[in-house]
Amino acid sequence: MARRVKAAGESAAAKTTGAAKPRASRSTTPTADSLAALSQARLIALILEEVGQSAAFKKRVTAALAALQGPDKVAGMIDRRLSALEKARGYIDWQKRRAFAADLDATLATILSDLKPLDAGMALDRLLRFLQGADATLERVDDSSGQVHAVYEAAAEAAGGLAASLSAEAALGFAARAVEGLDRDGFGLVGALLVDLLPKLPKAALEPLDARLVEALAALPAPTRKTTGAAAFAGAGQDWERRYHRLSLNRLRQVIADARGDADAFIAIEEEMSPERPDLAAVAERLLAAGRPEEALDWIRRKQKRGTAVVTREDLVAGGIDPQGPERAREAVEIRILDALGRKDEAQALRWSRFEQSLDAQALRDYLARLPDFEDEEALERAFDHAANRKDPHGGLYFLIRWPNLDRAARLVLARRDAWSGRIWELLAPAAEALEPDHPLAASVLYRALIDDILERGRSPAYGHGARHLTRLADLARELKPGDLTPDHGDYVARLRKAHGRKSGFWSQVEG
Fold it and tell me: Which residue intervals make up region (Disordered) (predicted)?
């Protein structure tokens, strides 16, 4: 009884003083709820501590305080930073890149988090100025990682979204101001922003902007006449910049033509830009969309010499170039045109031809989908036979693995045992992994080809992969019948040790 009274007294005292027992398990992850439990004094101390250690964070806090005094105060801070960026000439190496990128990101965050809520128009003007200074900044930064460029890409995306949310009149005014700075847009950030923005504007608003683009094109100086020596070298750079600027302006005019549904205007601009090599597929697509398939077919079938291959940023990121991409795109447009004209047999013949030439899986699927019932199975077998009987079996294996038809892939591997090149590891390694569960013999053939190539060429960076392949071979050997693979696994390893025993880097990883 005494204990109950004491407990009750303690509880009453706690209520009287306002004290409460701390929760036994409060989260230590910084969130809005967990930080709310800290006192104001503690939060201020933490902020001041970080302000003293991080220049970028100090700028964010300063901007937040400036926002309490109105948009002009924040805009003034941003303008001073942009002016400093525009005047800077020093080179920023990789060691300083991260801090510089953080500083740029702080400037962008100030525009979006502190100025935009107060005045969207002022924020958009600063975003445009920020982007127009990208060329000068990126040219003096070692940005091999793309870290600084990513900040500018984020700014362009934010500017496009903000401009699209404005009234048509305000968005048009922004677009007009952006066009004036395209001569300083060597990295294409502002141009890409406008390409995304213009189709979102009312069609009536596009006509005056198109007129402004025409005026800008007329004001450009004519290409310089060919010269020699130092003058030619200096003039070449300027001439290239003018050509790039002219191309950017004309591309925007084509975006406007598309937005207005004016195929003839698009074609006229294309012929003016590239009289010798117009983009036939682009022209044909516009004519097809305009309900003029006969004209579209005439364009898509015009002959022209092959020009310089265009490599996109996506190609570089992916680490490869697709040489058949342009032709595949052209044929895809031609097929759509033939379908629109009701010439189904010609469209089917073109789909099959595309598959035969490049083992294009999508072309085959499209072909099969349009066959009458019960004919598709026969056509599919014919396609598998064609893939397996190519002179170079690697393309056929790639197709069969990705289709997938692992049974036919395994048969191809075993039928061409001596044809596999371990140098094409990006195909053989995933193919071997795919074949392992149901086709251990075929997988073993590919793994041996990979290991042999790694050791014969002494590719030490790939020794780890080779060691793993050898481990997989040991596991797969238990599933093989005697005589399936010659030499057997034990003899194969013995041969490797005899031929490559001095490659200690490889054998240490095998033993490890």
Answer: 1-32
